[in-house]
Amino acid sequence: MNTLLGSFRKNRNLWITLIALLIVFVLAIRGLTDQEAVGGERYKNVVITILRGFSTGSIIFLVASGFSIIFGLMNVLNMAHGALFMIGAYVGWTVAVRPDTAVDAFTPIALLTGGFMLVPIWDRLLDKREWLSRSAHIWPWLGLILTLVVLVFTLPKYPITSWDVGSYEISPVNFAFAASQGILEVPEAEQFVGISPAIGLGGIILGGILAGITVAGFVINRRPATAGASEAEPFPWNSLIYCLALIALGLLVHFFNTSISNYLLSLDTTWLFILAILVAVLTGAALGILIETTMIRRLYETHFYVLMLTLGVNAIIIEIVRTIWGAPEFTMHRPSIFAGVGDGCPAESFAAMMEYKCATIRVLGGRVRTYNELFIPVLGIVVLIAVWILLQRTRLGMIVRAGVQDSEMVEALGINVQRVFTTVFALGVGLAALGGVIGAPSTGLTTTLGDSLLINMLVALSIGGLTSFPGAAAGGLIVGLLQQFIIKYGQIGINIPFMEEPFKPTPPLVPAMTVLLMVIILLVMPQGLFGRKE
Hints:
Elements: H1 2-10, H2 12-32, H3 44-74, H4 81-97, H5 99-116, H6 119-126, H7 130-133, H8 139-154, H9 172-181, H10 197-222, H11 237-255, H12 257-266, H13 269-296, H14 303-325, H15 350-356, E1 360-363, E2 366-369, H16 370-393, H17 395-412, H18 417-443, H19 449-464, H20 469-492, H21 509-524
Helix pairs in contact: 3-16, 3-18, 3-19, 3-20, 4-5, 4-13, 4-14, 4-18, 4-19, 5-10, 5-11, 5-12, 6-10, 8-10, 13-18, 16-17, 19-20, 19-21, 20-21
């Protein structure tokens, strides 16, 4: 008893806020119960609304958790997080609907990445070479120009069978519709035109190698004269192994391109969806590494410039998406395991849902979508547990938690904090991409997807606490439930005394109410529900 009272006194504002939220939640539930219904059907609207709130909150959490980890360790406000969420959705759609395009694009990406893998080797070989010191501020720029010339000549000519955003018949919109109807027909694979395959592939490999040399040159030029690599350090042979492995894999995929594409197109949509999740997460992590190492790393101490830089990256990503996939909105079909209709559907039990792969299941007399209201919340819980275990039970998590408290102390212990920063940034962006590909079948794909999600994410983190991982989960859940309750009340109305007709909240009130709740909580608890007191 004394312990409980002590906890209440110490966290009085938190307890009062949580109790107030619980009271509001209970009143909202009472308002949704149908007093004329009998049995379990009385709570049909409540259960369905709560499940939909869990679904919305899970997607917000997947993005907010990555943002929270990045900000907590690196003190970086990544305003491109919403756009990276959107990238996950579009990359996932490409793998799930047009895997042949993903296979075509894999080879040039692998060949270019293989060249970048050699950066540590070039750094070691070129560092402190007297014959380079005289032109240290010139030759990297010449290398950059030569790299661009080689890649401009070869990269656009690599055959990638995709779509045309200017023609509806072969646009992503039409392919998305055809895939949802099970009548997808992909174009014939394109071939090299105006250049031989040997020259095209060799040029891309050469361009990647030149790019690696150029990057190493810029790194060396910015390094203090006494900070070169020590001769006692082992030679980075791993980089050469990674380079050769990526180039070999890229060439292998190219030579067996048609067979791989046909095999993927013959797979069930559930397996393609699993592959889409894997590719989207890896793409997000790779983009996180690229952004952190090339842009953010040098601006850690200038927070305003990091903010402006990531806003610029956000705008660039949106324009890239519009160029590749087009501006119109389109859909992503659900995997077959959650798309069944006909006999046995909607399912009356979980066993029947799994047997018939139903798209809906009856709950208290109402229909619940198995993908939106069941799969997404369950996945959110799985990710919550997995990331919690990572942060609390692994060496990386221990370093991250210590780095949040005192990064200088961690670095003094001989830990490469910079590598940890890169890993954490990749993890955060990977979680955002996971949220994108998981949410795409539920929300659809549009170029405004990232901006709308970014606003909800920031509101959720402000409520839960910017640097708190549990706060990201709590904030996402609160925002998701609040939005779904407001949407439901917009349909049935709220009975207010002295009003003849029920008040029905309009759609603009949905984001307005979440922002209002955020303002109220921040007035009471400026650090959020679970944030650290500075």
